[in-house]
Structures are given as structure tokens and as C-alpha cells.
Amino acid sequence: MWRASVLTIFPEMFPGPLRASLAGKALMAGAWSLEVVDIRSFATDKHRTVDDTPAGGGPGMVMKADVLGRAIDAAAADTRVRLLMSPRGTPLTQARVEALSVGPGVVLVCGRFEGVDERVIAARSLEEVSIGDYVLSGGEIAAMALIDACVRLLPGVMGAPASGAEESFADGLLEYPHYTRPQLWEGRPIPGVLTSGDHGKIAAWRRAEAERLTKERRADLWARRDDRVTKPAR
Ligand SMILES: C[S@@+](CC[C@H](N)C(=O)[O-])C[C@H]1O[C@@H](n2cnc3c(N)ncnc32)[C@H](O)[C@@H]1O
């Protein structure tokens, strides 16, 4: 079973939105498991302190290496990858999500305050992962996003197997536009090709639209596709 362990000072935030919809049903069905570890329970003082002032001065607080180290040791005594949610980490991609979803699961450390003491990152081999170029107030929502993206790829979780194969980022493209009934809405018809019944033409139209949208919206993705075409893997 795919296992997610989340280390946080806000355990009450979980499962949160992961209780609903696909991920929630899969959790109830035993397709994956969630262990939430309260970092604060590894503090040793009577105030259960998890943070302290930054060495060298400056604003905010830093999560303590000793407390976090003990929490990680208790939660992650196996082969799962240990990820620290962090805005300075490697950006999370669909390819990475796919790779994580076929493994045994993840151990996710949620930072708070200014972040975590650098020494625990090195000493516990934490890999920093970002969900985007913006700063959240904590790693919990980032951890939920990562778990949700992985869980929907687990066998049997998504409705139709093809829905994953054709969606955004598969084949380096954004997904083509979708339409459904009514045929005419506020004077806007569904593109005729989609109701033609000609599956070859429909596939060609969807491909062309996916390419157009990717070129228009994501020059970075399109450039990477160009690279793949002009420099095929040897
Ligand atoms: C307020 S942020 C710390 C930001 C840090 N001082 C910096 O400038 O990089 C607190 C925590 O939120 C989480 N976080 C914030 N933005 C994130 C992002 N884009 N991706 C993943 N985690 C994020 C991290 O766990 C981080 O330690």
C-alpha cells in the first residue's frame, strides 16, 4: 500500500481536503494510508518548543534541528523518499509525481516560520520540493497538493485509465479544451468536429488544440518539446 507520512506542527489540518472525493474514497478503500506525526510531541521541554530565534539575528523563528530530527527518526525508518516542502526546492512536476506514485510512498516534512535548521536537511537527507514560485505560510497545503497528485495516479483510483494518459503534461503538452451538452449555450456552439463522429478528425483537432494552447501559454514547456524533437535521446 502507498503510504504518506506527514510531519507537521498542525496535525489537525489532516486529512482535511484529502478526506473528500477521489483521494478520500481511496483512503477509505485502503488504496493508500496517511500517518500524521505531530512534531511538537518530540519536544522535550514543558512548553513543547519546536522553534527558536535565527542564529545571526533577523526576523522570525526557525524550526529546531533536534526536535525535527527526532520526529523524522520516529516516522521514517524505511526506504521512502523524504521530502521537505520548501519554496527553494526543486519544482514539483507531473513526471516526478508519476515516479513517486509508483514507489512505496513519501515522508513529507512541513516547514513553518522562516523554515527549518539547515543541519537537519543534510543530516536526514531531506530533498527540498516546491509546489510553485510563491510563499505559503506552511508546508501543509503543499504536502496535500503533492499527496493528492500522487494518489489519483494509484491503480484503481481514477475512473477511466485513459483520463490520466491524455491530461495536461502527458507528452509535454497542456490538455485540449473540453465541451459537453447543451450543444448550444448562450449562442456558443460545441466545435462541429467534436460532434462529427469522425474519431480520426477528433484526435487531430485535440492534438492541434493542445499544441496551440501549449505554445500560447507555456513557452517553457513548448521549448522543452522542441528540444526533444531536435535532440532525440540516444
Ligand atoms: C513562510 S514559509 C518560509 C519561507 C522561507 N523563509 C523562504 O523565504 O524561502 C514556511 C514554510 O512553508 C512551506 N512553503 C512555503 N512556500 C512553499 C512552496 N512554494 N512550496 C512548498 N512549500 C512551501 C515550507 O515548508 C516553508 O518552510
Quick summary:
With 234 residues, this protein is an alpha/beta fold. The chain has eight helices and nine strands. 34% of the residues lie in helices and 18% in strands.
Describe this structure in words.
The chain is α/β, with parallel strands linked by helices and about 230 residues long. It has helices spanning about 20-30, 65-75, 95-100, 120-125, 140-150, 160-165, 200-215, 220-230; strands spanning about 1-10, 30-40, 50, 60-65, 80-90, 105-110, 125-130, 185, 190. Strands 2-1-6-5-7 form a 5-stranded parallel beta sheet, sandwiched between helices. A two-stranded antiparallel sheet has the order 3-4. It has a two-stranded antiparallel sheet with strand order 8-9. α1 links the parallel β1 (about 1-10) and β2 (about 30-40). α3 (about 95-100) crosses α5 (about 140-150). The longest helix is centred in the last third of the chain and has 19 residues, at about 200-215. The chain starts with a strand and ends with a helix. The mean pLDDT is about 95. S-adenosylmethionine (SAM) binds near residues 132 and 138. The site of S-adenosylmethionine has 19 residues, from β5.
